């Protein structure tokens, strides 16, 4: 797609599930469709405050973009990618301060964020740290867009070796573990009809890429809510050893007649985030964030 061509709508669906083995959900999701920004985070299992780390990360991303919107400055594609990096580094500071206040040794979270260029709609970018992944499903083919930041991948150990599995869960890069985080950036070409998948390793530890592609082909990309439910269901059937969070973004070349305007969508998003935080913590006045485990 060349500059000047436009798509009018990014259709989305998301689902987060505790899984079959975990006592709580440490994943978080944020959607900012008016900015073309979508993010999934996974609090590092076993670390003190992992559930808070993912919540802080998506909250900070929301706050950074909200402040930018309130300032009324036009945001280019490069500027919005910079805002994502800024948000993740702010989250690092907040997470570390949270650990100091509570006497925790450390905490952190993975984060995978996709930013669509709202002007040159033929391009997007994925920025990530950790092993939460981004995929593109186009014309029946699934392509992984990110490289896991794990000990196994860094050491180039092949996935098929069973003994490597434990090494696949050791994260080598995350938000909050250090004062700043380096995000890998992957440029992405975008076409109408593309389906993008952001997910935590609760999906990819249970289902390999071939199985995920088969499920997407079987259930299709027309009804995203149905498809995301089926992906979560199959991950749980396969063992559900971790929290499962999936965010689907489909690129349409026209908006449906029922599409909501941007402003009501933001109000709805804020209400949804506050409701979830109140339900999880019992403190409705805390900063809004996505679901946490």
Description:
With 293 residues, the chain is an alpha+beta fold. It has one domain: Phosphatase 2c, domain 1 (4-Layer Sandwich). The chain contains 8 helices and 10 strands. It has a 5-stranded antiparallel beta sheet with strand order 1-10-9-6-7. It has a 5-stranded antiparallel beta sheet with strand order 2-3-4-5-8, with helices on one face. A hairpin with a 2-residue loop joins β6 (133-138) and β7 (141-144). It is globular and about 50 Å long.
In brief, what are we looking at here?
Helix content is 36%, strand content 23%. It is of the alpha+beta class.
Number of strands: 10
Strand proportion, as a percent range, falls in 15-25%
Give the count of structural domains.
1
Overall mean pLDDT stands at 84
CATH class: Alpha Beta
Order of helices and strands: EEEHHEEEEHHEEHHHEH
Indicate the radius of gyration in whole angstroms: 18 Å
Query: What percent of the residues sit in helical stretches (DSSP H or I)?
Result: 25-40%
Order of strands in the sheet with most strands: 1-10-9-6-7
The CATH architecture = 4-Layer Sandwich
SS field, number of helical segments: 8
Which superfamily, in CATH terms, is the homologous superfamily? PPM-type phosphatase domain
**Low-pLDDT windows of residues:** 1-6, 257-293
N-end to C-end Cα span: 39 Å
According to CATH, the fold-level topology is Phosphatase 2c, domain 1
Structural class: alpha+beta
Any key phrases for this structure?
single chain, five-stranded antiparallel beta sheet, 10 strands, 36% helix
